[in-house]
Amino acid sequence: MSEQRSQADAASWQGFSTRAIHAGYEPDPQTGAVNVPIYASSTFAQDGVGGMRDGFEYARTGNPTRRPLEANLAAIEAGAFGRAFGSGMAATDTMIRAALRPGDHLVIPNDAYGGTFRLIDKVFTQWGIEYTPAAVNDVDAIRAAMRPNTKLVWLETPTNPLLNVGDIAALAQVAHEGGAKLVVDNTFASPYLQNPLTLGADVVLHSTTKYIGGHSDVVGGALVTDDEELDAAFAFLQNGAGAVPGPFDAFLTLRGIKTLEVRMERHCDNAEKLVQFFTGHPAVEKVLYPGLAEHPGHQVAATQMRRFGGMVSVQLAGGKQAALDFCSRTEIFTLAESLGGVESLIEHPGAMTHASTAGSLLEVPENLVRLSVGIEDGGDLLGDVEQALEGL
Ligand SMILES: *Cc1c(COP(=O)(O)O)cnc(C)c1O
């Protein structure tokens, strides 16, 4: 039998997939199980009062399926500490409560994920937290939105659903100069395409429901940081507020991560094919994809991302009705919210994921359609959008 791998090895693994497949876990010494067992146990026997085995006491505090996932998430995001949550929104909620107090202020993207905007606008404002939306692709606008009481700059890049690109290194500097932390919601890029901590971000947030899980079969979230104090606050809130994933969720997420690199490569290949097809199509007024040379964020994206991702948005020349028709005519692309799974999805953000932004500064164009390009056969996907756009 080969020597046991240690966590120290993970730091020396250069290749993404080696870390994705091995970091955080080694074959069980007792049984040799090569995968993490699903420890369906809410409590753990103690050898005498306070005598915890391997640090486990109660499964809200820590669970032997969740712990390898957390170590793995840290490794694939090139961070020191990883924490897993019951959803991306639970991670978002934890991040805000760890970093902000009543009277504090944060800057958010003016095209933030709808759920992030809703939580801040409808819940946290009730607790005395103030926010200013600003364009992530405009460093000066973010700087201008900073106030003396700004404690957090919230960044998504690429953004959802407009695929604007923020310069992580430049915005980390802006945040730090203003005495704030930079958190990057890295859900759209995934840890394979972009590692914000290496560019100066303080925290990386994921909805692991999306690319990390990758199979549309589990909801989860993650926070990764090098900041020991923040990590302690995250752990305190995991235990104190309890928004943690169960062991089966942790297992599914770990299982998804193993294939993240191969899935992302295929997502990117297929997205590029579709972008090429949409560009110049008479029914398409505008293609939003950071891989396009004419995309305003292309240079920054090319610097900070490995490739440009599997999300493509288009604005249709025929307006809202054409957008709605396109969404209902595809056969392989399923009309559904969410993204990042192996199967292709299509949606109308204005009426679906971003309906809560209607009438606000964050409202999205009504002719906008968002595609989460899956890993099916690229030719079949092209044929599907081609027939769906016919006559629009
Ligand atoms: C889905 C999503 C979230 C929220 O995550 P859930 O797992 O659905 O709670 C946050 N940010 C982005 C960018 C998302 O796409």
UniProtKB/TrEMBL annotation:
Cofactor(s) listed in the protein's UniProt record:
pyridoxal 5'-phosphate
Give all N6-(pyridoxal phosphate)lysine modified positions.
210
Any single GO BP term: transsulfuration
Q: Give the EC number(s) listed in the UniProt record.
A: 2.5.1.48
**What reaction does this enzyme carry out catalytically?**
O-succinyl-L-homoserine + L-cysteine = L,L-cystathionine + succinate + H(+)
Q: Name one Pfam family in it.
A: Cys_Met_Meta_PP
- Do the record's keywords include Protease? no
Please list the GO terms describing molecular function. Answer: cystathionine gamma-lyase activity; cystathionine gamma-synthase activity; pyridoxal phosphate binding
Specify the superkingdom.
Bacteria
Q: Mind telling me which NCBIfam families this protein's record contains?
A: PRK07811.1 (NF005871)
Q: Family assignment?
A: Belongs to the trans-sulfuration enzymes family.
Name the UniProt record assigns to this protein: Cystathionine gamma-synthase
